[in-house]
Model the fold of this input.
Amino acid sequence: MHVSLRPMPPTFQEPRPTPVTVIGWAWIVIGALMLVSATISFIASMAVGLPAPPPPTAGTPELPFSSIWKWFPVLVAGQCVFSIVGIVAGRGFLALQARARTTLEILSWILCVLLIAFAVSWIANWAAVGSSDDPFGPGMIGAVMGVLICLMYGAPVGLMIYHLRSPKVRAALEQRASDAQPESQ
Done:
């Protein structure tokens, strides 16, 4: 009988990959902040009222963003639903549920589309305010700032999508699913 005195190498299996933890908690925090934001916006709109669009004056075009206030209750309700889905999916993702990954990827793509829509409307508003006499005036500065803000928010969302689709995350979810299935004898 041969006895080895060398210790066995430890078998370490990461309970969940770091991107899963970061993305899951990010969506829980983002969802909670969105829910607080929507609630405060709704309460403030009920207390103070919504702003009325400025009266049209001759020769000035209507700003593209001025009609958004009539959709405010729908936008607040949508933000509440979006945030609750994000919180629930983030929690499920931390538990390595495959459907939570799909849900978070869909939410992330929706955020990308909303960021692009925001950038387009922001640039359109600043273009309407800008002057053709001064191409580098407030209109151009506002448009550039809008694009930079969208890039600043879009980069983390793009990283989330990249990691949500990564083989490491998919493998962890598949491992969790196979561990959860009972073995047949």
